[in-house]
Amino acid sequence: MADVNRGTRPLSPHLQIYRPQMTSMSSIMVRITGIACLGLSIIVVAWLLAMSTSEAAFETANGLLRSGLGKLIMFGATWAVFYHMLGRLRHVIWDFGYALDVRTSEKMGIGMFVGATILAVLAVVIL
Questions:
Q1: Is residue 33 part of a domain?
Q2: Is residue 8 part of a domain?
Q3: Do residues 62 and 47 lie in contact, with contact meaning Cβ atoms separated by under 8 Å?
Q4: Residue 37's domain spans which residues?
């Protein structure tokens, strides 16, 4: 350890050659959608508080959620809820010892993106 030159050596060479995989990306997205679901719960609680306080506050909050931006945010939140749900379902399947091989795990990751999108669109169309 006496003659180690740490100044010219990169700190994380694995980051320079790392190729993101579907399983790691879908796992990261599950964490991101979990945080998004927390944000959604804050929006829902604010809407409920506005409903319980006054008619004017409710009209303001409801108007914001029914605007174009509000609808886009709610669609994204709906997608996040479904994606997070499918991610948790994937982990339950893994906990039982099924679908642990890489090929099946990658297909499940793609299926999560597709499934969440289909479920979110169906929820918007039906509701």
A1: yes
A2: no
A3: yes
A4: 23-126
Is the Cβ–Cβ distance between 29 and 79 less than 8 Å?
no
Residue 120 has a pLDDT of 97
Query: Which residues, 6 or more positions from 29, have their beta carbon under 8 angstroms from its beta carbon?
Result: 83, 87, 112, 113
Residue 2 domain-assigned (yes or no) = no
CATH number at residue 42: 1.20.1300.10
> What letter would DSSP give residue 127?
-
Average pLDDT over residues 52-70: 94
| Tokens read off for 14 | 């694995």
SS3 96: coil
For residues 96 and 48, give the distance between their C-alpha atoms in angstroms, rounded to a whole number.
39
Note the pLDDT of residue 119: 97
Which tokens belong to 76? Answer: 């994204």
DSSP state of 99: S
Instruction: Please tell me the total count of domains within the chain.
Output: 1
Indicate yes or no: pTM above 0.85. Answer: no
